[in-house]
Amino acid sequence: MKLYGFFNSSASYRVRIALNLKGLSAESEGINIRNGLQHSAEYSSINPAGFVPTLEDNGLRLGQSLAIIDYLDRRYPQPQLIPEAAVLRARVLEFSYLIACDLHPLNNLRVLRYLQDESGLDETRKNQWYAHWIADGLGKAEELLRRHDGGEWCFGNAPTLADCCLIPQLANASRMNCDLDAYPLLNAVAAHALKHPAFIQAAPERQSDYVGS
Ligand SMILES: N[C@@H](CCC(=O)N[C@@H](CS)C(=O)NCC(=O)O)C(=O)O
């Protein structure tokens, strides 16, 4: 198994957590998206979308972190990260999509670069944009947990896809100096998760391609 990723990429971080939780080891290849390597001819032939991560497994080549984790869950079911029970599954996906589909794309590297390079936003305005969408998304995530939470993890007493999405997003927000005080439930889950070896080992600074934030 091989994972193409980038140490600071939260989508890659989600998959690293899932692999670790399942006890799977994958060869890791860093694609430096700060230097534009996601657009190189070589990587484009691997993932035409120009995003990390990409997983290779048994002849399969797959992009999109949530699709990758869903694949891993089917192929290597233990422990299950996307629950079977209808309501719990729906809650986990609702929370995960809020982060992965609504929040994360607005603050992606290509969007931030476009805002600076094409729309002329200076560093301060760009950071305001970033912080605005973090506050919007994390505020909604906090409210979902307030309504439906009930355990040490986002949903219940075992980690799920929701935790795989939350922890990397909080790490990114923290790296960008966003104020996280308004999210006590998210912070409590993070404090718990960051004691778990699967989450500790998936951290950006533990990756072989780490070059500093
Ligand atoms: N929906 C995709 C998003 C992947 C994504 O946005 N990856 C970022 C890093 S976290 C990336 O490759 N960005 C490159 C760019 O913006 O040019 C997924 O979940 O895998």
Automatic annotation (TrEMBL):
One Pfam family matching this protein: GST_N_3
GO CC annotation terms, alphabetical: cytoplasm
Gene Ontology MF term list: glutathione transferase activity; maleylacetoacetate isomerase activity
Source organism superkingdom: Bacteria
Gene Ontology biological-process entries: glutathione metabolic process; L-phenylalanine catabolic process
SUPFAM superfamilies in the record: GST C-terminal domain-like, Thioredoxin-like
Domain GST N-terminal: 1-80
Alphabetical UniProt keywords: Isomerase
Ranges for domain GST C-terminal: 85-210
Gene that encodes it: maiA
UniProt record similarity statement: Belongs to the GST superfamily. Zeta family.
Protein's name in the database: Maleylacetoacetate isomerase
Parts forming coiled coils: none
Known EC number: 5.2.1.2
